[in-house]
Amino acid sequence: MIFLSTLVATLLYKLHTSVPGPRGWAWGNILVGVFFLLRMLPAPTPEWLSIAVANGILLLGQGFTYTGMRQFVGLSPLPAVPSLAALLVGTPLLWLLDDGNARVALVSTGLLVLSVAIIAALVGRSDGSVIGRRLVIGLFAVNAVMLAVRIAMALGGSINMVPNNGGGGGGGMALVLFIWNIPFIFIGCAGMVLMVPSG
Questions:
Q1: Residues 6 or more apart whose Cβ sits within 8 Å of residue 98
Q2: Which of 52-61, 85-94, 103-112, 131-140 has the weakest average pLDDT?
Q3: Mean pLDDT value of segment 125-154
Q4: pLDDT, tens digit (0-9, with 9 covering 90-100), for 99-113
């Protein structure tokens, strides 16, 4: 579903090159797809690649989605945001490779900030279809709640919040919160498609 969303977002951009925003959404989806590919690499993959670089790419992708949303509603795109998000989250992860919960809290905090920023960029705007905009706002609001729960559980420390990492008894909840990303990305892409005028 994630790679289908990437394809749909890219086609949306190619079909609507004159509409500001879909280019950022396409790049955002492409980079999130790269994140999932890096996270699925087999076990001998170095952690600096599968954790630090992968999560930096995830934040870069969400940053591009944010700049695309800003462009779509007529705000300045703030082009430095994706790179700053990736650097501010990806770089510290190199020193947190041994602390899974700290990694989860750091990445989730970066994603939470970007989710709230996307909501703030869209609320009160009249660009695009109302149903698409409401779907995207609602979806990012649910995502913000999921990320806040993930941060709280990771900072609580008694539960291992790293999906598929064993121990701590929180692996099931961690996996649910991780798997949430699949419908989030797919439904988010559908909302972006609905936002763009069909004419």
A1: none
A2: 85-94
A3: 92
A4: 878 888 889 999 999
Residue 40: both structure tokens together = 């699925």
- The model's pTM is 0.87
Answer yes or no: are the C-beta atoms of 12 and 193 closer than 8 Å: yes
What is the CB neighbour count within 10 angstroms for residue 197? 10
The Cα–Cα gap between 196 and 30 comes to 19
Q: 160-171 pLDDT, tens per residue?
A: 766 654 444 456
Amino acid 42: pLDDT: 84
How far, in Å, CA of 172 to CA of 164, rounded? Answer: 9
Contact 5, 189 (CB under 8 A): yes
Amino acid at 87: L
Alpha helices in the chain (DSSP H): 2-15, 22-39, 47, 54-72, 81-93, 100-122, 130-156, 171-179, 181-195
What CA–CA distance (Å, rounded) separates 167 from 161?
10
Q: Rounded to a whole number, what is the largest CA-CA distance in the chain? A: 53
